[in-house]
Amino acid sequence: MNSFDYKVVEGFVRSMARNGVGLATQSNAFGKLKMVLLDAHRLGLYEDSPLEGVKPPQYDPSRSVIPSPAELREIRSAGDDVFRLVADMMSGCGLRNGEALAVNVKNIVADDVYRVREQVNQTTGDYAPLKHRKKGQYRDVPLPARTKATVEEFVEKYGVVDGYLLRNPKDPSRAFSLHVVQNRWRRIKVDKKVKIPEGMTLYGFRHFFASNCLSQGIPITDVAEWMGHKSIEVTFKTYRHLMPGSIGTAAKILDTGLAA
Q: What are phi and psi of 87, to 5 degrees?
C-alpha cells in the first residue's frame, strides 16, 4: 500500500488505455481501485489521497463504436476462420469475448436458440461461470441462421473436442486464449485492407448485436436479458443513443389511439 501515490494510479490508467482495454472495463477497474484507496485514506494509511489530481477514465456510452452492416461483412471476411467464428458469435448472438471463445455445439438447444453456459476467464484462461451468474446458471440468446451456418461450417472443417469448437492449439485440453484473437484483430487493423470505424474494438461486434436488435424494434428488456447485463440500466445507459426516435414514435402511436 505504501507504493501507491497519484503517479502509480495515473500509470495504471494509462497502461489500461495502451493495452486497448475497453472504456467500460477501465471505468469499472478504476472504480474498484478508488474504493480501496479511499478507505485506506480514511483509515489514515495515507496522509494525502493517492487519487488527488488523477483524471479517471471517462466512459461515455455514446462513444461505443459500432460497425455498419457493410463494414461488419468486410471486417469478418478479413480474418481467418477462428476470427470469423468469434466475430459472428458476438455480432449475431451478443456474446462477450470470453463467451464466444467457449462456443460449444452442445449449447445449440434449438435451431434458433443458443444457450450461453460459460466463458473463458481472461485472467485464469480457464472455463468459468458467466459474468454476474453462479456456476450452472445460463441465459438463452437468439441464434440467427447465418451465425448457425458459421458454427456448422467450422465444425465440419475442424471438428470439436467435447463439443467445443475452439481449444488451445498446443494443448487441446485447455481453453482457447483471447490473446490469439486480439492479435489477429490487431493485424487486420494494421493491414488496413478493410475499413474499420475509428476507435472500434473487438467489443464493437457485441455493440453491433445491440444496435441490430434495437433498430429492428426489439424491446430493450429482451436485449438486456440476452446480453447478460446485471440490470436494464446498464443496457439503457450504453445504448440509449441508438433509440433517438423512440419518444417520437411513441407519440405517433399514442396519437393514433387517441384519435380513434
A: -60, -40
Please say whether the dihedral angle defined by the alpha carbons of residues 66, 70, 75 and 80, taken in this order, is positive or negative: positive
> What's this model's pTM, rounded to 2 decimal places?
0.73
Give the count of beta carbons closer than 10 Å to the beta carbon of residue 15. 10
Segments of the chain scoring below 50 in pLDDT? 62
- Cell numbers for 67, please give them: 460497425
d(C-alpha 87, C-alpha 76), whole Å: 6
Angle between helices 81-93 and 69-78 (to 10 degrees): 150
CA gap 27, 218 in Å, rounded: 28
Residue 6 CB neighbours (<10 A)? 14
Q: pLDDT tens digits for 215-258?
A: 888 989 999 999 999 888 888 878 876 765 555 566 776 777 78
Distance between CA atoms of 5 and 17, rounded to whole angstroms? Answer: 19
**Bridge pairing between strands 113-116 and 108-110:** antiparallel
Identify which of 151, 185, 147, 145 has the alpha carbon closest to the alpha carbon of residue 166: 151
Q: Report the SS3 class of residue 228.
A: coil
